[in-house]
Amino acid sequence: MDLPQIPDDDADFTPDLAREIIAKYQKIITDLTDPTLRSMRLDDGGFNMELGGEVVKRMAIMMTTWFRESGAKNYVEIAINAIDPPFEKFLFYVQKRGDGALTPGEALSEAKAEIARYASQVADLEEECDRRYQETEKLREQLAVSVK
To answer: Which stretches are annotated as coiled coil (predicted)?
Structure first.
């Protein structure tokens, strides 16, 4: 990054040059800290916003580095408490998408759905067993009547 330089000789440091240098530093600060709104839309009842800019890039690098260095497979979280009133508590997390990576809540939901599928299969098999038992009993009764 090319930073504006203050001249060594005070005679070269004019008010116009000072304003120009200040403006350049202000632009650099804005570029580094102000996210750019790239898009904003409503999709399927959800609000999606895409941000860009240097601050977003640096945050993304920080969060992916945090995730990778943690050794986590699916997500990491950190609780942060505000240091001034009203002392709110915040939870930040980074979740990996794809590769089967799930949060504990998603894994629990998937497990509950799988259990429900198995429970339904067991209920169906029990009904089938009961139906076959009833058929077997009828055949025994018929066989017993025909033997007499």
So the answer is: 108-142
For the chain, the straight-line distance linking the first and the last C-alpha, in angstroms and rounded, comes to: 104
Cα Rg of the chain, angstroms: 34
Q: Which domain holds residue 91?
A: 34-101
Is pTM beyond 0.90? Reply is: no
- For residue 24, give the nearest of 37, 6, 38 by alpha carbon: 6
Count of Cβ atoms closer than 10 Å to residue 114 Cβ: 10
pLDDT at res. 137: 92
Q: Find out whether 42 and 51 touch, Cβ atoms under 8 Å.
A: no
Total structural domains within the chain? 2
